[in-house]
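ok, trying the design again with the full structure, not the truncated one.
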């Protein structure tokens, strides 16, 4: 199974809800393995197919399929980001709309104004992005973290997991490795979009020559988790407003501390001096690595499994479903903040 953030959250939530006796209808690609009745809207995921195409047709097909089948469900829970808007406006059933992507774009408030849906952000920082959108709830992402491998005897290596794009700070991660004198293992898919390839050739490839780096490619989940567990620290120098940061909680579930730039939701996930350290640039992050050895990896693991479990996430969404079914017009019926952090 390759890495996909939103897809993994939908899979985890579907699994939890099905286990609790809910009937789940999943509108997704034909290669989806989540539980429940499936309505396939594309044969395989666009990402898995490496298709550098406009996904609008796939989104529209998904929306049409949901609307054609909505009489079979009580609540529609959509994860289509801005495509949540046309679905919510057309649907007759109550809609819970979770947003996973960044929101600091022009005209976001105009697109989402008056949307007849219960709007969910995935962190407090996400909800507070300067979009002018008033969210009804914050629900932290959750994963089944209890089976992650625990690394109590790590190597001296650092690890970076993510896309090789400017927003993920890959060049800064390489610089952290250079400044600290540690090897960096990069777990990332080979760039396939043209702008990603251009960035790799212009910025990443020259940086690789300046540090001890091992490129591992996009690993399967088990192999990736073993790399996380065996690493001294995860380096996460994101420069964009991270709505959440699944890689951070996965690393912590392995007992691996996180050294990161305090972008977006990261300070909600990584508690300074407890789960890792925060630094504003590569030099500060490299200096913070000197303190990482003092952290309790067992405590990091134990606490993150409780804070960001799939079960906890499902509990919060069940509260929201009950509220919107009781009164779809009452958007204040659910506590607006998740206290996991």
């Amino acid at each position: 199974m390759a890495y996909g953030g939103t897809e993994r959250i939908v899979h985890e939530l579907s699994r939890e809800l099905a286990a609790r006796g809910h009937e789940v209808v999943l509108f997704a690609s034909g290669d989806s393995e989540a539980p429940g009745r499936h309505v396939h809207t594309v044969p395989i995921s666009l990402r898995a197919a490496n298709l550098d195409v406009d996904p609008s047709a796939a989104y529209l097909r998904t929306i049409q399929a949901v609307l054609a089948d909505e009489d079979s469900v009580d609540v529609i829970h959509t994860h289509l980001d801005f495509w949540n808007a046309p679905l919510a406006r057309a649907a007759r059933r109550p809609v819970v709309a979770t947003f996973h992507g960044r929101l600091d774009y022009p005209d976001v408030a105009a697109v989402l104004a008056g949307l007849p849906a219960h709007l969910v952000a995935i962190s407090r920082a996400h909800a507070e992005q300067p979009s002018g959108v008033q969210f009804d709830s914050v629900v932290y992402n959750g994963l089944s973290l209890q089976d992650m491998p625990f690394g109590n005897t790590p190597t001296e290596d650092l690890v970076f997991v993510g896309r090789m794009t400017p927003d993920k700070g890959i060049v800064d991660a390489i610089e952290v490795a250079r400044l600290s004198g540690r090897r960096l293992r990069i777990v990332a898919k080979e760039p396939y979009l043209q702008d990603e390839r251009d960035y790799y050739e212009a910025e990443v490839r020259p940086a690789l020559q300046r540090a001890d780096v091992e490129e591992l490619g996009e690993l399967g989940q088990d192999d990736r988790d073993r790399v996380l567990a065996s690493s001294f620290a995860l380096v996460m120098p994101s420069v964009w407003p991270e709505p959440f940061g699944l890689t951070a909680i996965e690393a912590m579930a392995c007992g691996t501390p996180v050294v990161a730039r305090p972008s977006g939701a990261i300070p909600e996930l990584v508690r300074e001096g407890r789960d890792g350290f925060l630094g504003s640039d590569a030099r500060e992050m490299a200096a913070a690595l000197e303190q990482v050895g003092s952290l309790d990896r067992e405590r990091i693991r134990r606490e993150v499994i409780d804070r960001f479990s799939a079960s906890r996430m499902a509990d919060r969404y069940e509260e929201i479903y009950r509220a919107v079914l009781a009164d779809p017009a009452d958007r204040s019926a659910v506590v607006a903040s998740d206290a996991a952090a």
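Keeping the full-length input from now on. Residues 5-143+309-326 form a domain with the Rossmann fold fold (CATH 3.40.50.2000).
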